[in-house]
Amino acid sequence: MIDKRVADSQAAIAGIESGMTLMLGGFGLCGIPENCIKALSQSQVTDLTCISNNAGVDDFGLGLLLKGRQIKKMISSYVGENAEFERQMLSGELEVELTPQGTLAEKCRAAQAGIPAFYTPAGYGTEVAQGKEQREFNGKMHILEHAFQADFAIVKAWKGDYAGNLIFRGSARNFNHPMAGAAKITIAEVEHLVPVGELDPNAIHIPGIMVQRIFQGEVYEKRIEQRTTRKK
Questions:
Q1: β-strand 21-24 against 48-51: which pairing, if any?
Q2: What is the C-alpha separation between 67 and 59, in angstroms, rounded?
Q3: Which residue ranges make up each domain of the chain?
Q4: How far is it, in rounded angstroms, from Cα 35 to Cα 150?
Q5: What is the pLDDT of residues 171-218, one digit of tens each?
Q6: Contact at 8 Å (CB) between 183 and 151?
Q7: Hey, what CATH class is 9-117+148-216 in?
Q8: Burial (CB count <10 Å: 0-12, 13-18, 19+), residue 8
Q9: How many other CB atoms are found less than 10 A from the CB of residue 220?
Q10: Pairing relationship of beta strands 213-216 and 183-194 according to DSSP bridges
């Protein structure tokens, strides 16, 4: 069995260069690869195209890369929690491609499965459909969407083994699952890294064949974007 462990986040992001396209898992701040994002924010890479459901918040998650002007283009479905993102978008500093959330997920899953393109009714008749092939199926119009082509996919899992097999926990599974294996190289950071054979085969969500690098992360903050509690 191939041992895919690397020492830390710095070793994991080796080879990521300016101008590359990255997929980053997570939904809001749930399940984001905190260690790799921090390592990227401390690197010199710029002009990145980032595919992520959202853009973090101003001082955390992808907000760190936005603050450092390291992102050239964001491909996302929801971006409402980041004031710096809004400023850069409105000023023309940041290129933004808004994508329906289901389409974003399917463009990841299609890349993971080796499917080059697919038809979907989502976005037909809107700006999303502009410049895209349109076709009718069963009396309903659809648009052609192409699978993503990314250089690296960076995902976060709860537990993994030395061979790259991954188990997600709860809602942190989100976009991490379809992004794993959807790029040329997949990096997985995990909270618990164990020897091969310690994971229940029936519990594995992503097989190790889809992962090229894995490491155990440290000091996960696991922030909550909007903490709402009822009055006592």
A1: parallel
A2: 8
A3: 9-117+148-216
A4: 20
A5: 999 999 999 999 999 999 999 999 999 999 999 999 999 999 999 999
A6: yes
A7: alpha beta
A8: middle
A9: 13
A10: parallel
